[in-house]
Amino acid sequence: MGADLYQSIIQFLQGWGFLPSLGIVYVLSLVLFWYESKHVNKDSNSVFDQWFVATFVMMIWGRVAYVINNWGEFSNWYWFYIPYEKYGDQVYLFRAMPWKLFRFWDGGFLFIPMFLCYLVISYLFVVYYKRWRWREMMIAILGSANFMLALTLILYGIFINDDNIRNYGIFILILVAAYLIITAILKFLYKKKRDIFVKLGQFIIVLFTLGDIWLISYIFLSRGITDIDTYHVYGFVIFASFMLMAYIYDVRSNLDPGAEESVQSLDKKERGYSIFLRQAKKSKQSEDK
Description:
Distance between the termini: 89 Å
Order of helices and strands: HHHHEEHHHHHH
Oligomer: single chain
Structural class: mainly alpha
Strand order of the largest sheet: 1-2
Strand content: under 5%
Shape: globular
């Protein structure tokens, strides 16, 4: 029964096509990103622009990386000045250079560069454009990126009949699922003790990031991949380590007594200024009388 269902799903996806199936992956990853963002009280309208910008740039860079990696396939192709050719009743779009560079529906992307690009653009957008706290958004970004990569590898392994690639995607998906399940259990157990849940959740995020760095690097560096993919895996290890340090620093700065004291002193000044305004208003009213 289970094997028949699995084969039915595979046949359905193969009949539908790789790119339309990636559309499902995109939507599911967006749902996970929205779900995690909602936990930190981010309005849905304010997080979607970050998602769309990051994924748009991600797709561009994935295509650029593919072209660079397979330049021999493009450099020897003939050039034509218009983006279509017509032979009899048949019309061919974007078949000649330079238009062939934009023929993305053939599936010409490199997934590891896309994965790293999404993380980098999301970090820059959240920290420097939105000016949000990194500790609030890191897991939404890192979790959705891993979820998207996992499902993409599973699909790609299915379409090219490569069990190793499919299994790599399953391993990454298990890591994401483990985080979601553990977080849900902790939330249920400590729903009335928010401080404990927050601290345990932060610890789980650190463990998830460390596990992700190890898993991604082990999966891809232990396998024969292209040079450009290898460089991006190294880039991920470096950037993920940076993200983790920025997360820990942001969490610790939130617990800094000096920072809390400065906020409290600022609140006192604001309260004192409000009292001064009320007293001045009362004095003016008494003079008018």
